[in-house]
Amino acid sequence: MNTCRGVYILGFTLQFKVLVSDPLAEEGVAILRETCDVDVRTDLTEEQLIEAIKDYDAILVRSGTQVTTEVIEAGEKLKFIGRAGAGVDNIDTEAATRRGIPVANAPSGNTLAATEHTIAMMCSLARNIPQATASLKKKEWKRSKFMGVELNEKTLGIVGLGRIGREIAKRAQAMEMKIVGFDPFVTKEHAAQIGVELMEVDDLVKVADFITVHTPLTPETTHLINAERIATMKDGVRMINCARGGIIDEQAMYDGLVSGKIAGAALDVFESEPPFESPLLALDNVIVTPHLGASTVEAQKNVAVSVAKQCLAVFAGEPAKYAVNVPMVPPDRQEQIPPFAFLGEKMGKLIGQLVDGRIEAIEITYGGELSENRTNHFITRSILKGLLDPILREPVNFVNAEYVTKERGIRVAETVTKADAGFKNLITLKVTTDQMEETVSGTVFSKDRIRIVSIGGYTMDMVPEGSVIISRHLDKPGVIGRASTILGEAEINIAGMQVGRVKPGEEAIMVLNVDADVPAPVMDEIRAKVGIFSARFAKL
Ligand SMILES: NC(=O)c1ccc[n+]([C@@H]2O[C@H](COP(=O)([O-])OP(=O)(O)OC[C@H]3O[C@@H](n4cnc5c(N)ncnc54)[C@H](O)[C@@H]3O)[C@@H](O)[C@H]2O)c1
Ligand SMILES: O=C(O)[C@H](O)COP(=O)(O)O
Questions:
Q1: Nearest Cα residue to atom 28 of ligand 1
Q2: Membrane-crossing residues (predicted)?
C-alpha cells in the first residue's frame, strides 16, 4: 500500500482507496498512486473479494476478476469500476447501474494488439507453425506432415466489423485475401469503403475459407456460429476466435474438427477459462493461446493508463470518458451539453421543491433549436437526477437516474417542438403528482447566462442558483411588503425579487432570492398573511 496526497475536490482533500485485482501495467498503477491508496491484490478468491471490496472506492480489473452482483452490492463505497481492456462481460454492469456506479473500459487501447494476434493466429493456422515447432523440438523432421495452405486469394469472413474487425480487414487485404463481413450495425456502403462485401451471416459461412469472429459476447452472439451454420460451411474451413469464448459453439466446433469438416481452429478465448477440461486441447488441428490477444507491452500500458485516468476523473466528479453504462457525450457536443445539463438539473431540483405528493409523470419538451438536438437524453438524465436525488433515500446520479425512475413506475415522456416562445432554445418540464401539476421552463442564452424563464406559466428571468422563496399571491398593494417585513424581522436579507402576473389584480407569482435559509416558522408566517396563497422555500 502507498500513502498519498488525496484528491482535491471543492476545497477538501479526499483520500480514495483503489483495489487493482488483476495484473495492471505499472504506468497505470503509478498514476493512481500519485493521489490514492492503491492495493494490488491479484490473488483474491470471489469470497475474499466480496469481503475486501467494502473498503474501496474503486476496483480496476482485466478479464480475470468476476465483478458480480454480490461484489458490487458489497462495495458500499464503490464509485468506479474500471476495465483495463475492451470486454466488460466479466462485470455485472446492470448491478452497477442500479447502484449508480459508472463502469468504464479502455476500448481502443488493445485493438491493434488483438488485431495482430488474430493475424498471427490465422497465419499459424494456415501453416501449422505451433504443431511444427513442437514436432521439431521433439527432434522430428516431418516436412510433409505440415503441408499448409496460402492465404492469398482465399476468402476471409469477418463476423463483427468493429474496431478489431476493421483493422483485420485492412491487413488481410494487404495479403490479397477477399473479405466478406457480417455486422448488423454496419451499412453496405461503409463496409464497401473498407473493402468488405457485407452479407448475412448465413451467406458468409457458406463462402468463407477462413472465419474469424470479433463481436462482444451477448445473448445475440452466443453460439452465433453453431452446428447448423457449420454444416453449411465449405469443407476444410478454418476458424479463429480471438474475441470471446461462446461466440462459436465449442461442442459443435469440436464435432466439426473431429469429422474433418473444419480443417483447423485457432483459439485465444474459451467458453470457460482456463479451459483445462476442454476436449479441444487434445486435438492436433487446434492451436491455442491463453487469452493473449491484449498481451503486448504497448496495449497494457494504453489500457492501464486509460482506466487510471478515468478513475481519477470520476473521483474528481467528472465523467469517465469511456463509461459503458452512461451515454457517451459525442466529441462535437462536449462544449454544448454542460450548460443545458446544469439548467436541467436545476429545473429538476426546483420543481421537486414546488410539488407535493407522489410523482406520477414527468414530461419534458425540448423547444426551438433543441428540437433538432440528438443529445437531449443527457439533459433528461440531469433533470431526473435534480428532481429525484433530493427526494429519494438512495442516491440518484447520472448513471442510475433512468433506472430509478423506471423502477418507481414514474412515466417519463420526452417531446420536441419547433415552438420556442421567443427563445433560441427552451426546456419545459411538467411534473404531475397524485395531488397536483407544476411546470417550469428554462433557457440557455449563453454558457454564463442560464435562466428559469417561467414557473407555472408566469414569465420571469431567474438565475437558477442559491436560496429562493416562491409564492403565489393576490396582485394587490401591500402583499409583497408584508412578506418582506417578515423576512426583515427574521434578519433574512432579500438579494433580489421578481414578480410575474397574467392580469392586474389577479393571482401573481413572486420569487425572492434570499441570502440565508428561511426557517419553517418564518415560512409559516409568510403563508399566513392575507393575500398570500402559497409560499415555498427552495434551495438550488
Ligand atoms: N482476445 C483478447 O485478448 C481480446 C482483446 C481485445 C478485444 N477482445 C474482444 O474482441 C471483441 C471485439 O472487440 P472490438 O474492440 O472490435 O469491439 P467493437 O465494439 O469495436 O466491435 C464489435 C462489433 O461487433 C458488432 N456486433 C455486435 N453484435 C453483433 C451481432 N449480433 N452480430 C454481428 N456483429 C455484431 C458491433 O456492431 C461492432 O461493430 C470483443 O468481444 C472484445 O472483448 C478480445
Ligand atoms: O476484452 C479484452 O480487452 C480482452 O479480452 C483482454 O483481456 P485481458 O485484459 O484480460 O487480457
A1: 215
A2: none
Distance 199 CA to ligand 1 centre (A): 17
User: Which ligand has its closest atom nearest to the C-alpha of 204?
Assistant: 1
**Please, where are the H alpha helices in 260-362?**
297-315, 337-354
Buried b (16+ CB within 10 A) or exposed e, 287-308: bbbebbbbbbeebbebbbbbbb
Sign of the CA dihedral 85, 90, 96, 98?
positive
Enumerate the CATH 3.30.1330.90 domain ranges in the chain, comma separated.
Answer: 327-462
CA distance 378 to 339: 11
Architecture category of domain 327-462 in CATH: 2-Layer Sandwich (3.30)
Q: With bands split at pLDDT 50, 70 and 90, how would you rate the model's confidence at 8?
A: low
Instruction: Please name the CATH architecture into which domain 111-288 falls.
Output: 3-Layer(aba) Sandwich (3.40)
Weakest-pLDDT range from 7-16, 178-187, 256-265: 7-16
pLDDT in tens, 189-237: 999 999 999 999 999 999 999 999 999 999 999 999 999 999 999 999 9
Contacts 24+ apart (CB under 8 A), 199-206: 201/159, 201/229, 202/229, 202/232, 204/157, 204/159, 204/180, 205/157, 205/229, 205/230, 205/232, 205/233, 206/232, 206/233, 206/234
Please indicate whether residue 216, judged by its CB atom, sits closer than 6 Å to ligand 1.
Answer: yes
CATH of 466-540, one of 3.30.70.260, 3.30.70.2470, 3.40.50.720, 2.60.40.1120: 3.30.70.260
> How many whole angstroms from 88 Cα to the centroid of ligand 2?
9
Pairing of strands 494-501, 449-455: unpaired
- Beta-carbon-side half-sphere exposure of residue 312 (alpha carbons within 13 Å): 20
Has 273 been annotated as catalytic?
yes
Q: Is this structure's pTM higher than 0.90? A: no
Query: Above 0.95 for ipTM, yes or no?
Result: yes
Give strand pairing partners of 442.
427, 452
Residue 191 in grid coordinates = 463496409
For residue 49, count other CB atoms closer than 10 A to its CB. 22
Q: What's the CA-to-centroid distance between 30 and ligand 1, angstroms? A: 29
The verdict on whether 408 is a catalytic residue reads no
Task: Give the whole-angstrom CA distance, residue 197 versus residue 182.
Answer: 9
| Superfamily per CATH, domain 7-108+298-325 | NAD(P)-binding Rossmann-like Domain (3.40.50.720)
83 catalytic? Reply is no
The rounded mean pLDDT for the chain is 94
> CATH 3.40.50.720: which residues of the chain?
7-108+298-325, 111-288
Question: Which of the residues 244, 381, 473, 536 is marked catalytic?
Answer: 244
> Which atom, in ligand 2's list, is nearest to the CA of 243?
5
CA of 87 to the centre of ligand 1 (A): 8
Q: Say if residue 310 is exposed, middle or buried (CB neighbours under 10 Å; 0-12, 13-18, 19+).
A: buried
